[in-house]
Amino acid sequence: DNVDPQETAFLLHKAWTLYSVTPLYRFHRARLRDYARLLSAFIAAEKQKGLAVEVGVELGIKVAVSSLADLRGSEQDQAAVLVQLSLRSQASSRNSEDKLVWSGWFCSMYGDDLSENVPEDFTCLPLFLTHGAESYTSMVGSWFQKTFDCCFRRLAISPLNLSWMVAMWAGCKLDRADSAVELVFSVPHLSQPLDISYAVHPEDAKALWDTVQKTPGEITQEEVDVFMDCLYAHFHRHFKIHLSAAKLVKVSTAVASAHCDGIVKILHSQYLPEVLMLLTELAISQIQ
Amino acid sequence: HLATSLPLPSERHHLRPRINLIVFMIDIKSKYSLKNVEASLAHVDASFFLGKVCFLVTGVGRVNACSIETNAVCKLGEAYCSPVLFCELELEGIRVATAQRLVRMLQICTGHIPGVSALSFVSLMRNSDDD
Q: Cβ contact (<8 Å) for A188 and B29?
């Protein structure tokens, strides 16, 4: 599946906060413009109630809701839906553009496990990614919850899932892997918090993964365990510290980075479907 | 008696009372604790695996902090024919209930409950597999 790079350029190099979303009831793709209007009115009303984020002259928020036709995996997947909030430009001069202050998008990448088992009238877009002020996220979330009877939950990522991500992404073939594979650990039970950052040359990490993975295109828990055990053993040999007793909180590769609080950054468009597929799977397992 | 790993130091061997139950504690947040238990299991005499060993997995309340796959622990329990208990030590109610379960198991292992021996644990596990 070739994803249009222009359509997806907006989502690279941004820190997206992840949520899982239960299926939306009676969401109609033909009514996106209506939804934008209704959401805009809702936000204006919320601001009137005194929940304003901006101090000073309030220029009003413009809402755009659009469909990203190519951002999906299987035939059953719904195409992604993008919501953008912009501050209206001040002057009427031609050069002033509306300033984008918040983006959020719903997505399903091979989310068939969920969409197969859901009655008609429900639209499955289990992954929600946001970038921008939390207050806007809260308003948009509230409107969607009220309008489509769905439920949003922050998606945390466990150390187990982070190790899957680093193994998968470190093994991705890239023309130029220009950033190190980095793992950040938080050490528990200390009076002062201590973080350990372990950086590995991307070619070394890929070489290690290549010796571990038996079937290309397939990854097993055993292979991820062996990969991580090798990294832990190497670190222990040098520093006499058992990283396996610490908590893995962040992983970073040239393809993408992920933090246990449920924040990801996608750095390479080539592996976008794979990254989104993994995140969709996490979102679905949180819903079920 | 508490130990961070096995084998126990040989110096105290003659002073040590007979061991009736071994509880291996695995912290779901620490991959290292699983590795440690796996290494320690090699030092346990085979006769203990007739109902005198059990695995206690702690920290299960925090799903988002888990570093170990629960499937891996269940497989360990199956491989060693020993029960696997899951608990969350941070919650007092569960902590107390788990302690009571362990004491009960210990009573059976020391032969203080007439009619029930440690071997019952092994046959109970086999029955649930057949289901």
A: yes
